[in-house]
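DUF4429 domain-containing protein
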Amino acid sequence: MAEIIQKDGTWVFDGDTLRLTPGRDKNVGLLRRPLGELTVPLGAVAGISFEQGRKAGRLRLQLRELGELHRAGLLTDEEFAQAKQAVLRRM
């Protein structure tokens, strides 16, 4: 089991599930507080990576999603390149 404790909450990994418990810090999101503790199967979040800093993590997730659409054939090479440049310009 691994546990990450921060001001905005606690993350507990027990091998099969991820348990998220919101903290009481003022920076805890307005949606996260009323939801309370969430339990998510680890497989549901296996492809997500966290990078310190909001912009870096969001950028990686957006690029990963575009890559998945491209690999699935839902975006052409040209559409993928344009979408990727648009994401990079916004950051």
